[in-house]
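Retro notes, item 3 of 5
We never archived the inputs for the 2-acetamido-2-deoxy-beta-D-glucopyranose complex last cycle. Fixing that now. Sequence and ligand:
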Amino acid sequence: MYKTLLSAACVLFFACMVTAITLPATPLTTRIYLGGSFNTLNGTKYNNIAYYDLKESALKAMENGTDGEVKVVNVDVYGNVYIGGAFTQVGTKKTGPVAIWNIYTAAWIDTGLSSSDFVAGSVVTAIDTDCTSLPDSMSISGLFPCDIFVGGNFKASVSGSTATNFLYYHNKNKKWETQTAVNATSVTVVAKNEYQLITYNKVYYGGKFYDANGKEFGLAIYDTTNSPGVWTLVDGATGVTDIYYNPNIFSTDNIFVAATSFAKTECKGVCNYNHKSAAWSADAGSVTTGAVNKIRYIKGLSASNVGSIFAGGNVKRDGTGDYAVIGTNYPKETVLGMDICGLFSQYTITGCKSGSVAVGGQNFLKFYDANANSWKSLLSETGFVVNSIYVKTSSAVTSTVSFALMAVVAIVCFFF
Ligand SMILES: *[C@@H]1O[C@H](CO)[C@@H](O)[C@H](O)[C@H]1NC(C)=O
Ligand SMILES: *[C@@H]1O[C@H](CO)[C@@H](O)[C@H](O)[C@H]1NC(C)=O
Ligand SMILES: *[C@@H]1O[C@H](CO)[C@@H](O)[C@H](O)[C@H]1NC(C)=O
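Structure as it came back at the time:
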């Protein structure tokens, strides 16, 4: 078994080397992608989507943006950007409410969906990807070989059937497919961890799900092992605002869930769901005052090596609870979008040190630079809302591949 793993790792190693050599490289930096409701920022028209380049300290446009609000931004391991919202087009492409930006061409691409496939008023609120295949020649200007999971409040006609609130790009079949129907009135988040070795085919969703008796569930799991997939509604949380399925292979089996209420009384604001045992635990501590909108985790950042959890929302920031405040002059505003630099971030290369955090909301976009130990405001104006933030440390495929490679080597070492 271990020998098999090792040889698989070796094959992957050489595949990575070849991929790294043949694919074009993109700049080594950190981008803070922001999606929301805005037109002009700092004198330039961005239209609901943009990124802030940490090394250049400047906002950058993604063509001329969208014709409607962006609700969610997600970036895959390679650096491609996926957005969802209440828009129908990006640039001149009539995409409908989901669009994809190719990292090599720095352009919105044809996704295979178009605005005419969606019922008017369709909104996408959650996206995650699973890119376990290596990029191929198609990837250089089009879709990468990734599964794409989309949730929201929409109806779309795909592959001859109607997708209601959920749809996914099934890379194996190279097409958009519907998922088994489930009663969900809202979807706040979807989380798929591509590094997860055990419960590999499970996709985690937060939102409002109902069973046949009308009982509400905040968390649901879609298992893609069989086709069509199978939903399981998970008891124990309502009003789920975020799920962080830690993409860190050194981590535990815990999924971090932020919600307004949990059945487990020790959990307030946040709770852990163990994806192997299906048990809830209060390992993430508790946020006793206010609502948590976003949760992130890095293992190995703190001196104890246990890890650090980042909670953003309208939580009380007095530093007296389980959760301490980050630095001084921390934002007092309600955090709607938040993301952190990952464990593999290297300050000199990417401009983003582990422990740094980007947050945004109504009329603010702020960044805590762990290297300087200070918060700075990246925009000094009003009239905008940031709904979603995704921090991508280094968009270079070559470096992503080498990080992935490090991860693979680490897995092998771990098993030995
Ligand atoms: C805002 O615009 C000024 C003038 O063009 C530019 O120097 C600055 O870098 C811009 N700020 C951001 C955050 O892009
Ligand atoms: C972007 O530019 C295209 C081509 O000029 C135009 O059709 C589209 O309406 C523009 N979109 C926005 C959001 O301004
Ligand atoms: C979903 O469940 C809710 C709560 O029981 C119910 O009101 C609604 O009619 C259901 N929707 C569908 C499409 O079954």
